[in-house]
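Session log. Operator J.P. requested a structure for one protein chain; no other inputs attached. Running the standard single-chain path with token output.
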Amino acid sequence: MGKISNEEVINQLNLKFGEEVVLLSEPSDLPNFETSREHITDVLSFLKTDPALQFNYLTDITAVHYPDKEKKFAVVYHLHSFVNNVRVRVKVFLDEDDVHIPSATELWNGANWMERETYDYFGIEFDGHPDLRRILNVDDMTVFPMRKEFPLEDPNRVDKRDYFFGR
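Structure written below.
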């Protein structure tokens, strides 16, 4: 099977999901789609199993914290079709007080580690994950370090004072 175009991917998603999947942008041949938490499992499953699309490889799952936006978190999925040599990005935006989303571990075994990492750094709860716990940070950590909730520098650090640098 030859390479399919981004337009064909967009058309297939429009035919299957209509308004439930929205094309956000298409930078550098990487279409960005948005869907809802309620439809993410169906969208990912369709992208993976559709005979024409075959997005068989889950490249990454991560999140982004947008502290100044209404929907403060985006869970981001990067998929690759090795058969068609096409990639897509799918985003789901979540409210700050409800950061739950279905797990993709039923579709890809590799989602296990990625979801644990995203939970560990952003606090995103992947419902149905077989073992959602911290993977890189200490177990008793009470914050999620990739959230933009803290100052970049500790104002109490004395080794960063200007007089140490002749200023």
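Operator note: The longest strand covers residues 57-65.
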